[in-house]
Amino acid sequence: MCEWQLRCLSAGAPRLPVVLANRSAPPATVTPVLVYPDVRAAVAWLESAFGFHERVRIGDAHRAQLAVGDDGAVIVADVRREQVPPAAGAVTHVIKVRVPNVDAAYIQACDAGARVVSEPTSYEYGERSCELEDLAGHRWELTQTERDVQPEEWGGVTVSPW
Questions:
Q1: How far separated are the first and last CA of the chain, in Å rounded?
Q2: For 1, 96, 126, 156, which has the most beta carbons within 10 A of its beta carbon?
Q3: pTM for the full predicted model
Q4: pLDDT at residue 18 above 90?
Q5: Annotated domain spans of the chain
Q6: Is the CB of residue 63 less than 8 Å from the CB of residue 43?
Q7: Nearest of 67, 63, 73, 93 to residue 29 by alpha carbon
């Protein structure tokens, strides 16, 4: 245990800290920050292609916080110092977004100009998904649950159930 934890425990602080709500920060536990060359164009595209909703704008071209579904968030950030958008020919990440209807979401994203990496496909583990690339080269996997499947049914191993 570190010194800070010992001080907290000796002061009667709870072992598990409570995360406070803040209207200036997304409520999601994990929030990816994605770099785009044009923040406003990225926000418009993400709203049009994926149905995200802008919640907070920080300057005209600096950052924006977007809501994703009921409990997700993405931050769109500008290019600065070592922050750069993806480079052609390299995939460093894929953002997975759960949607109620992957086929409808796929059509919406394609209509907005998404580049198709893979078309909607149903998999043995109960998901139907596709992969798309946005205007700056970020990869997005849209996925829909078709049925509940135990990981052991398709070769996975349940280490700790959700």
A1: 27
A2: 126
A3: 0.79
A4: no
A5: 26-79+90-150
A6: no
A7: 73
